[in-house]
């Protein structure tokens, strides 16, 4: 297990979290499954949104970690160009469903295009 994954496991266990969203995971789209799954402690599942491949040198990527007993599915609300987005539909009980969206905007000036795309996500 990587040192970073060990720290993530500790945070989840120490705080007894049901779910956690991470940004800038550096987990690439072509990473082996063992690396993608390593971030989730036993009893948890992970969903990734990788933005780049191993040939890129950027720290992008989002991960959603939650308990295994929750039903998670990717929720498609588009592919904005101004920010990273991972949205999941989470079913905790048969009648309780929520949508969780993580938006990560890289540092820099906020553009009108970013604002428009974010407004589209909320719409």
Please tell me about this protein's structure.
Helix content is 24%, strand content 33%. The chain starts with a helix and ends with a helix. The strands form two sheets. A three-stranded antiparallel sheet has the order 1-3-2, with no helix packed on it. The protein has a three-stranded antiparallel sheet with strand order 4-5-6, with no helix packed on it. It has 123 residues and is an alpha+beta fold. The chain has one domain: 4-Layer Sandwich (Deoxyribonuclease I, Chain A), CATH 3.60.10. The model has no long low-confidence stretch (mean pLDDT 86).
Question: What is the typical, i.e. mean, pLDDT?
Answer: 86
Total domains: 1
Strand content: 25-35%
**Biggest sheet layout:** 3 strands, antiparallel
Order of helices and strands: HEHEEEEEH
Helix proportion: 10-25%
- The outline comes out as globular
| Helix run count | 3
CATH-defined architecture: 4-Layer Sandwich
CATH topology: Deoxyribonuclease I, Chain A
State the CATH class. Alpha Beta
> Spatial order of the strands in the main sheet?
1-3-2
Q: Can you say what the CATH homologous superfamily is?
A: Endonuclease/exonuclease/phosphatase
Poorly predicted spans: none
Radius of gyration: 15 Å
Measured between the Cα atoms of the first and last residue, the distance is 40 Å
Class based on secondary structure composition and strand pairing: alpha+beta
Per DSSP E runs of 2 or more residues, the count of β-strands stands at 6
SSE topology:
Layout: H1 3-15, E1 19-23, H2 33-38, E2 44-49, E3 62-67, E4 71-74, E5 84-93, E6 96-104, H3 112-122
Antiparallel strand pairs: 1-3, 2-3, 4-5, 5-6
């Amino acid at each position: 297990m990587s040192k970073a994954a060990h720290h993530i496991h500790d945070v989840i266990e120490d705080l007894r979290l049901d779910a956690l969203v991470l940004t800038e995971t550096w987990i690439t789209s072509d990473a082996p499954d063992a690396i993608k799954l390593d971030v989730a402690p036993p009893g948890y599942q992970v969903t990734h949104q990788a933005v780049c491949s191993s040939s890129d040198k950027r720290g992008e990527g989002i991960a959603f970690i939650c308990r295994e007993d929750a039903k998670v599915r990717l929720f498609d609300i588009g592919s904005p160009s101004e920010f990273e987005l991972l949205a999941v539909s989470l079913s905790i009980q048969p009648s309780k469903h929520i949508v969780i969206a993580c938006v990560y905007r890289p540092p820099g000036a906020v553009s009108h295009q970013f604002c428009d795309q974010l407004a589209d996500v909320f719409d």
